[in-house]
């Protein structure tokens, strides 16, 4: 689809706790947008680059202690490489980029849940991303019980090990949920779409797709 020569791509982040439905929504939106003729890139944090795959493995399957600050800096390293190697080139070629998690995940998990200083996390995130922020963030809001039962079901189906984060206790995830709720309460309302993640997948796709198409139209007009 020709979006006009000045359109500098459109960046969408999908955020929420483990099991809220980010990966499924990301796949579904990419396929809907491709069917409509848009050029898209599906990506994620952590692990979208060769460096990121190493970092993701260390973070998810660690067999040794990692200090909370070191943990954040590993996510930030993944983020810097992701922006440099995947996100910026795709936006420069006017693509629609959908990322399963971005910088707000560090604010929720390492800031609100681990207790690291949120101003410092925001500063390092800003530096790592060259201040590039999503045009739209979709927050899939869900309660802990629904999310964890989905994660356990996925784990049984694929016979995978639970990751380091998935093994965290309810108390940890409650803090992550409070974190996301606060982050999106104070963000520019125009750039956030809060969706009830307990709804069925088709309803979620319809609600998000319609919103994305509106926002893309607005950005394109502003760029003409
Ligand atoms: N809206 C939904 N309703 C019910 N189950 C869902 C929904 N979205 C995703 N799932 C299922 O829940 C599990 C976790 O979804 P997933 O997309 O992998 O979540 P995340 O990427 O946020 O961890 C998967 O087995 C998926 O098929
Ligand atoms: C990007 C990011 C992820 N994480 C955590 C959340 C997830 O448990 C884990 C990997 O993310 P992910 O693979 O998206 O897990 P899931 O699909 O189960 O939601 O890393 C952070 O703690 N900080 C971050 O900055």
Automatic annotation (TrEMBL):
<dbReference type="GO" id="GO:0006233">
    <property type="term" value="P:dTDP biosynthetic process"/>
</dbReference>
<keyword id="KW-0545">Nucleotide biosynthesis</keyword>
<dbReference type="GO" id="GO:0006227">
    <property type="term" value="P:dUDP biosynthetic process"/>
</dbReference>
<protein>
    <recommendedName>
        <fullName>Thymidylate kinase</fullName>
        <ecNumber>2.7.4.9</ecNumber>
    </recommendedName>
</protein>
<dbReference type="InterPro" id="IPR027417">
    <property type="entry name" value="P-loop_NTPase"/>
</dbReference>
<feature type="domain" description="Thymidylate kinase-like">
    <location>
        <begin position="14"/>
        <end position="201"/>
    </location>
</feature>
<dbReference type="InterPro" id="IPR018094">
    <property type="entry name" value="Thymidylate_kinase"/>
</dbReference>
<dbReference type="Pfam" id="PF02223">
    <property type="entry name" value="Thymidylate_kin"/>
</dbReference>
<dbReference type="GO" id="GO:0005829">
    <property type="term" value="C:cytosol"/>
</dbReference>
<feature type="binding site">
    <location>
        <begin position="16"/>
        <end position="23"/>
    </location>
    <ligand>
        <name>ATP</name>
    </ligand>
</feature>
<keyword id="KW-0067">ATP-binding</keyword>
<keyword id="KW-0547">Nucleotide-binding</keyword>
<keyword id="KW-0418">Kinase</keyword>
<dbReference type="GO" id="GO:0005524">
    <property type="term" value="F:ATP binding"/>
</dbReference>
<comment type="similarity">
    <text>Belongs to the thymidylate kinase family.</text>
</comment>
<comment type="function">
    <text>Phosphorylation of dTMP to form dTDP in both de novo and salvage pathways of dTTP synthesis.</text>
</comment>
<dbReference type="GO" id="GO:0006235">
    <property type="term" value="P:dTTP biosynthetic process"/>
</dbReference>
<dbReference type="GO" id="GO:0004798">
    <property type="term" value="F:dTMP kinase activity"/>
</dbReference>
<keyword id="KW-0808">Transferase</keyword>
<dbReference type="InterPro" id="IPR039430">
    <property type="entry name" value="Thymidylate_kin-like_dom"/>
</dbReference>
């Amino acid at each position: 689809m020709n979006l006009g020569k000045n359109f500098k791509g459109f960046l969408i982040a999908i955020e929420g706790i483990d099991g809220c439905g980010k990966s499924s929504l990301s796949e579904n939106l990419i396929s809907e947008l491709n069917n409509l003729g848009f050029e898209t890139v599906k990506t994620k944090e952590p692990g979208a680059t060769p460096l990121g795959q190493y970092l993701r493995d260390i973070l998810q399957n660690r067999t040794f202690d990692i200090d909370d600050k070191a943990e954040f800096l590993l996510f930030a390293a993944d983020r810097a490489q992701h922006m440099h190697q995947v996100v910026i080139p795709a936006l420069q070629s006017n693509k629609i980029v959908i990322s399963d998690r971005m910088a707000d995940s560090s604010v929720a998990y390492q800031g609100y849940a681990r207790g690291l200083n949120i101003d410092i996390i925001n500063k390092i995130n800003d530096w790592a991303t060259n201040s590039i922020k999503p045009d739209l963030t979709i927050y899939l809001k869900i309660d802990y019980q629904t999310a964890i039962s989905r994660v356990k079901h996925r784990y049984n189906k694929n016979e995978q090990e639970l990751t380091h984060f998935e093994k965290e206790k309810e108390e940890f995830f409650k803090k992550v949920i409070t974190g996301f709720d606060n982050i999106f309460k104070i963000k520019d309302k125009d750039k956030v779409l809060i969706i009830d993640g307990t709804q069925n997948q088709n309803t979620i796709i319809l609600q998000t797709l319609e919103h994305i198409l509106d926002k893309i139209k607005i950005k394109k007009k502003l760029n003409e």
